[in-house]
Amino acid sequence: MKGIVLAGGSGTRLHPLTHAVSKQILPVYNKPMVYYPLSVLMLGGIREILVISTPCQLDLFRVLLGDGSQLGMSIEYAEQRAANGIAEAFVIGAEFIGDEPVALVLGDNIFHGPGFSRILHREAVSIDGCVLFGYPVKDPERYGVGTMDERGRLIHLEEKPAEPTSNLAITGLYLYDNDVVDIAKNIRPSERGELEITDVNRVYLERGKARLISLGRGFAWLDTGTHDSLLQAGQYVQLLEQRQGVRIACLEEIAFRMGFIDAAACYELGEQLRHTDYGKYLMDITAENR
Question: Which member of 3, 65, 81, 236 has the greatest number of CB atoms within 10 A?
Fold first, then answer.
């Protein structure tokens, strides 16, 4: 399975912070925001990733992430010249995707919960259609919403409904089989001229090939699109890391745990940052295994 991180948009809700820098480069506590969605794909075992952003921001991501080889991965880059909708990522990334299934994650979404890697692995290896992830929220009218029947089957999808029939917001993580490329190329743009991801998901729903997994108790899904939510996300990460003594979305550690790189390579990455707590953490977790 290939992976896409969509890190476009102008981040207007975060102005003036994002006048000169991509929203997904901003810090969430002690790491750039893009580390968090990227870590989700890595936890799913995905090693080939395309980062899509605006033309003026792509070089920032290239400097930050490089070609991915230091993490035992391959990271490529592509432009989204205008905010033409989430589903345009599959049109832009068609050549990168090739004939494989693909996972898409939004660059400002943070996921954290027990067994998440296991869930992603299970779904990725047997994908037939699309798999969506729902999260219960207090204000579902702000999101795309999925409704399930009494047997847990997805039966309805709505985009920002005035009267939601469910409180399950569709999160910014999507798994698709290879049909998604042709579906995205053939859906009609919305009135705003965007290729809406909900329209893609509805095609799968009509085919009987859309599933919704509810991320319930024990999981956290954070959207960092406003000043308040960005601050809250940083506080959440800070609290967990300081209480538990582990790092959330530490790309080097995940690459090591997933077998993308060995202990010696991870230690060396930590040594390059040895004057920081982040670097010392990497050196500590790999010191005995070098």
Answer: 3
Hunting for tokens 């745990």 — which residue is that? 257
pLDDT tens readout for residues 52-80:
999 999 999 999 999 999 999 999 999 99
12-21, 126-135, 170-179: segment of lowest average pLDDT: 12-21
- Cα separations (Å) of 191 from 10, 84, 92, 227, 234? 20, 11, 21, 28, 35
User: For residue 281, what are the domain limits?
Assistant: 262-289
- Could you tell me if residue 118 is inside a domain? yes
Residues 117 and 210 in one domain: yes
273 and 191 within one domain: no
Number of domains in the chain: 2
Task: Yes or no: say if 256 and 286 are a contact pair by the CB < 8 Å rule.
Answer: yes
Token pair of 146 as six digits: 């999925």
| CATH number of the domain that residue 103 is part of | 3.90.550.10
**Rounded CA separation 192/84 (Å):** 8
| Mean pLDDT score of the chain | 93
Q: Residue 6 carries which side chain, given as an amino acid letter?
A: L
The token duo for 262 is 């060995």
Q: In the Cβ-directed half-sphere of 110, how many Cα atoms lie within 13 Å?
A: 28
Closest CA to 154 of 205, 106, 108, 93: 205
The DSSP element (H or E) to which 14 belongs, if any, is none
In sequence order, what E strands does the chain have? 2-6, 27-28, 31-32, 48-53, 74-79, 102-106, 109-112, 130-136, 144-148, 154-159, 168-176, 210-214, 220-223
